[in-house]
Every structure is written in structure tokens, then in C-alpha cells.
């Protein structure tokens, strides 16, 4: 198709880019050319893409219309490729932090995290809960167990009853793909005995924690949201992050639902049902860690593990009104996680509060297994959230055109939150320009698509798995397989280029602040229930602010800051320098403290601690 070859962009050197507020670099909005497809239309589209006659033409048209040819395939990029977003460790001299012994056990790290939290008396805790925050935290579970108010076994029984009830609703919430009541009760019994002996392992002992079904956790298969992958890739034991939680005494309560293969941001799964949003069960909870977000939002667990390959922790966290935290690439061991996107995917935490995200992060962070890629082992610092000296002189980078590229309710809510934060702590905003964001989105899509297609290729060659796909995932995998080596290499060149751009931004500011998503949760269409759905336009709006965290391996966190007129949650995101997790947690904690009195209980909520 040489006669139809689209002209490619010639990228000028990064040194010539103006990243200041008056830059003449144009903000390029996403212009996604793809209709929403579900039901019969999704099936027809899959057949076209898989046709020997029409498939190649369809892929060519899709790439051209969506500017893949212009920005990537035919582009001239002088930068060298960067295949893995590894960051050399730099001591950032962060404020109000404490260095943690790198050889500390997970339980020891949990205790050190607890020591960093503000102390709260029993009486003031109750008053605080009733007036502000209706969900119970890890510290609440631990305190109730130690005081003999309730046992882990009783919590496990209530949890199992709640999950059963959620499946019996007119609109089943579909929190889990797999949970085993017998295994949950066994873990809870062992934890109860430890408390009776006065020897709990850590503050996580007996606390229910859910695990996305992209992460190995015995005794469950790891399906990746499919009906077939576990048949060709059996789970042989716990992932490293799960083993660390288990060593702290946490009760691993099952494998949460997810979008099949993490294919789109909706989180809808035609095989296991859609994990519905507890704020409005007719709407999505967001994906792909949809079940993990919903289970935390609904109060069944104070925290859950997810995997974030393209915002898949932060997007559902924001849409479901909880905290979502994705650390720096290489901070959390990835062994035992489905290798679907090995240079953009990262284990993350979804939690009801920043404190709970911090505690779980403390348990699962640490040295990587020897076979995982890394630079020099980074030091581990924890934020002193109990410090009486708030961090100062923080500079928040805002790219106005990008920040405002969301619906009006989100723009106003997030702008007000940033203003409130700056007024309260005397922090400053810095206006910047971050060019080529749409280019970065497309380069990330080429990367995650190529890696997923490669990871699945050996399985699909020897298995009839394609016929067992949901139709939406089938289309996505077909598209993933259409990227070639030239496009993959160009995408990695663009990765290096954008790393240099962001390094220049971080020379001006401590963090980049954005809304987390460009829209709130949208309604679940009826035909998506059986085939899944492809909604690239809404998906592009939801994923708009996520890409740098994954493509460049940067840490990022989202915290709820308000609601739209329909009562749906809105999140604010902070994107940090590599290894700046403590600063991000300080910022999120400060933001949470300013917004907590406005938090609302979702329509679907289970008070399994049973103290109210």
C-alpha cells in the first residue's frame, strides 16, 4: 500500500522543545476513530479482522485513521530506543521520611509503616468514624482483634455471607472470579488462634485482602479473566507480592474479577459478569482491576491488589471512589504475575484510605528476586505521616490544556481540590507544557499490544483459546497482533524521548497533577454482558491521564476528591519522580485530610466489621 503511505512526523530534538507555559507546542487531542461495538457488531468486526481477504486492509485503515502511521510507523525519531523503563536510583532528599532496612521482613516493614501513622485514641476514633469516614481500616481490624471485640474467624464468616448476598442481588456485583470459603475459614482460624495466644504476626494478621486474578495466589487458578489461560499456564504457587502478604498473616480471600486479559478500561467481563460500581450498580467500576476496586469500595476488604499496565489500578480506583497506588517500575516484585505486559505492567494497591495503601505497600515492597530486571537496589523510605511538620515548598506541575481536557464537573472539582491544597499548605502550582501526549498514548498502545500478543502467541498456537475469548478481547488481541517490529522499535524510541521530556518537567516541579480520568463511570450496556464491549472513545477519555505512569515507569497515586451531580466519584492524580513514593503518599494523605468530611457511602456497602 505504498501509494497510500501516510506522511510521518519528523520529531525535533528534545532540547528544542519549549516546556514553559507560553510554549507554541500544540496540544493534540485524542481523535479516536472507532465506533462503540458490542453484541453482533463486535462479532462481525472480529470476523473482518481475522479474514485473510479483508483483515490486512482493515488493520491498515485503523492504523491510518488513528494516526499510528503518522506519529509512529512512518515517523522519524532520532532518540535511541528504551526497552525497559528502569530508573537509576537517585536519593531525592525527600522531606519527612525514614529509611527502612532493606533486609527487614514484610511483617517488620508493616510495623514500621504503622509507626509512621498518626496515633488515634479509641474514643476519638469512634467519633471520627461516625462523622467522617464510614469504612473500617486495617488499623481498625487489628485493634478490634487485639481488644477481643471480634475474631478473624467471625469476620471471615461475615465476608463469605456478604459475597454470597452480593451474588443474589437483582444486579449481581460479580466481585470475584474465584473464592474458596473453606480456605478462607482455614486462614481465619489460624489467625484467630494467633490472637488468642497473644502473638499476631503483624497489623495485617486476620485482615481480608483480595487479589486480582492476574496474580498467582494459591489455591486458585490464575485466569486473567479468561476461560482458558489457566489451562495452559497453571498456577504453581503464590506470586512474590502475595507470599509477602501471607507471611504477614493477611487472609487472602480470593481472586477478583477483571476485564479479560486487561483488554479495556471498562472492566466488563462477559464470562464472569461485570463487576458493578457500588456507587451505582448500573455503571462500570472501571478496569481492568475492576473487581479489586469494587470489593474495596463496597467495604468487603480494606485493600486489594491490582495490576496497572495502562492505568488499570488508578482508573477503577478513581471511578469507584478509593485510593489507587502504582509504585515506580521495579519497586514491587513482578514474579508470579501473568506476563502480559512486562515493561509497562506493575503490581499496585487499591485501598479505602491512603494509610491502608501505605501498609500494604510496605508489606509487598522490597528487594526484587534476582531474575527480575533492576538497576542498583533502590533504598526504601517511608513517609512520616505522623510528623507535626508538614512538607513544604512543594511545586505541582499543571499542563492547563491537558488538565482541562475532561468533563466540566471533573475539571471544577479537581481544580478546586488543587487550590484547596495549595492554600492550606502554601504549595505552588507551576504551569508547564508537556508536548506529544497523544503520541505517547499511541506508543504505549503499540508497546502493550506487542507485548501482550507476544506473551499469548505460544499459547494460542497450541490451543483453541481464540474461540473461547469474549468477542471484545478477541478483537483487541487481533489488533495487538497487527503491530510490526518497526512500530515497536519506534515506540521504544518515543519512550526514551518522553523520559527526557518528563525529566525536564521534574526539574521544574516535584509532581505532575491531573484529574485521574476524563469522565466518571458510564452505564453498562445490555449487549456488553454477553459479548463484552469495545468503546475506544470512552476508553480513551478514561485513560487520558494514565500513560506516563506505565510507559515511563513513574509512580502515581489517585485519591478521591469529590463527586459529580449523579453522585459518582472523582479522583485527583499525582505523578511523581522515580522512587518518590513517600512524597506522593504525603500529598495524597494531605489531600485526603482535606476531602474526608465530604466522603459518601456507596449504595452497595457491607459493614463486615459490624461495629455500627
From TrEMBL:
Q: Which SUPFAM superfamilies match?
A: Amidase signature (AS) enzymes
Q: Name one GO molecular function term.
A: catalytic activity
Question: In terms of domain of life, where is this protein from?
Answer: Eukaryota
Q: Which residues form a coiled coil?
A: none
Q: Which InterPro entries match?
A: Amidase, Amidase_dom, AS_sf
What residue range is the signal peptide? none
Q: Which residues form the Amidase domain?
A: 178-584
Protein name according to UniProt: Amidase domain-containing protein
